[in-house]
């Protein structure tokens, strides 16, 4: 007999695993910033001033203090047995009327007030008279231009007055120039100069004899030379201006007065 012995060896392997867990805590700090905004409010205070005009009316009030033993205190037509005197109509019969009964209650049927008030109103009316006087002065000035009347200018003409006669004469349009011979020689008054005649109108022709005359009327402004044909050195010039005017001024004054009465 064969005996087989089997031995079974069981090996148990135990593995221990240790797991370490690390817990990390993160703290997050939140910073809260509080911003305070200051708002400045400007306060404007408006003061309104009200001007009140008060018209005062004065009342004159007179208060008369009366005695309890009087009709003014008791009242008319009132009867109370406790009163020292009476103010009803029967008091006349019984002869116990208060002293002021005849004044206050004899003809009255109403009750009198203890206080007598008198109001006096005075109204004053003022009338203002205003006189306004307005004086207006109007001055009118009128200027009128008038022409000077024509005149005559006399020129002595001849050799005898050669050194004394006016060689230049000024006149106005409308004036007359009169040449009078100052000797007995033969002369002319001829328009022109330096022995050369013009045809402008001064032409006396030949005249002889002391006292002979020639007239010429100035008709237009300008310069008018003249000479003597027989004696060319005997010469002169006439200057003619426009008609002269003379201003005549008249003044009229008007005064107006207005009176207003209120």
* Shape by Cα distribution: rod-shaped
Q: How many strands, which pairing sense, and closed or not: the largest β-sheet? A: 5 strands, mixed
Q: Note the total helix count.
A: 3
User: In terms of structural class, how would the helical and strand content be classed?
Assistant: mainly beta
Cα radius of gyration in angstroms: 72 Å
Q: Give, in order, the helices and strands.
A: HHHEEEEEEEEEEEE
Distance between the termini: 180 Å
Q: Spatial order of the strands in the main sheet?
A: 3-11-10-6-7
Portion of residues in beta strands equals 25-35%
Query: Uncertain regions: pLDDT < 50 for 5+ in a row?
Result: 13-64, 109-124
Mean pLDDT: 72
Helicity, as a percent range = under 10%
Strand segment count:
12
Report a brief summary of the structure.
By secondary structure, the chain is mainly beta. The chain is built from 3 helices and 12 strands, in the order αααββββββββββββ.
Q: Which labels suit this protein?
A:
3 helices, 262 residues, 5% helix, mainly beta, single chain, 3-stranded mixed β-sheet, 5-stranded mixed β-sheet, rod-shaped
Q: Overview of this structure, please?
A:
By secondary structure, the protein is mostly beta strands. Helices cover 5% and strands 30% of the residues. It contains three helices and twelve strands. The chain has a five-stranded mixed beta sheet, with no helix packed on it. The longest helix is centred in the middle third of the chain and has 5 residues. The N and C termini lie far apart (180 Å). About 26% of the residues have low confidence.
